[in-house]
Design brief:
With 285 residues, the chain is mostly helical. It has one domain. The protein contains nine helices and six strands, in the order ββααααααββββααα. The chain has a two-stranded antiparallel sheet. Strand 1 and strand 2 form a beta hairpin.
Length: 285
Amino acid sequence: MRVFAVPFPNIDPIALELGPLAIRWYGLAYLTGILLGWFYARRLASNTALWGGRPAPMTPVELDDFLLWAAVGIIAGGRIGYALFYKPATYFADPLAFLRIWEGGMSFHGGMAGTIIAMVLFARRRGIPALSLFDVIAASATFGLFFGRIANFINAELYGRVSDVPWAVKFPQWNPQTGEWLFTGAELPRHPSQLYEAALEGVVLFLVLRLLTHKAGALRNPGVVGGAFVAGYGLARFVVEFARQPDAHIGFIAGFLTMGMILSLPMIAIGIAAVIWARKRGPAD
C-alpha cells in the first residue's frame, strides 16, 4: 500500500455562522440543487420545440408551485429511506435524529420515492399527466445529485474503499467540540467515491438525459426520460458501489453485494422496462 495520498481539503462543514445559526454546506448543496433543477425544469416546460411544437403538459407556474412539494418529498423521503434502509435501530431509538439533517444521512432511493409520491399527488390535483411531470423532474434531478455528492465529500462521509490509486484521499473525522478535522495518523488512502458519483450521477447522466430531451425528442413519449433516469442512476450507483465503502453496520451482503447494489438493481430493471413500454406506447396524443 502506498503511503502517498491526495491531501483532504480542510473545508469547514459550516459555510457561515450567524450567531447561533449555522449554515452548512450540506444544506446549501441541497438548496442549490433544488433551485437549479427548478430553473432547468421551467426551461424544459417553456420550450415548445421539445414537445413537438405544442405547449408542454405543465406550465412554468405549475412547476413553481411544485417546488415546495418536491423539497418536502426529497427531504422527508430521503431521511426516512436512510433510517429504514441503513440505520433503523438508531433512528427508532432516537426519533429526534430525523430532524438533525445537518448531521448527514440521506438516501437517494428514499428521496426518489418521496418525490414520486409528491409528483403523483400534485399531478392528480392539477390535472397534469404524471408521466410527463416525472420526465421533466427526472431530467432536472441531476443537479441535486451532483451538489449532494460534493457535500458528501466536504463532510468526509460515504467515502470509498481503501485504495492505492494516485488520487486516493485520507479522510479525517470532524470533531464538533473543537470545530476542527481530526487526523489520528491512522487514516488509510481511500477512493473519493463521492466524486465518482458526482461525475456519473450528476454530469454523465445529465448529458445522457439532455440528448434524449433535446436531440431525440423523448419528451413526446411520456415515460422515456423518467425511465432512462431511473435506469441510469441505478447503473451509475451499482458501478460506484464497487469503490464505495459499505456501511460499517451493514457490510457486505451475500459475499460482495452492498445495500446500495441491492437497492439499485431493481431500479435498472424498472427503468429499462419503463423506457421499452413508453416507446411501444408511442407519443402522447
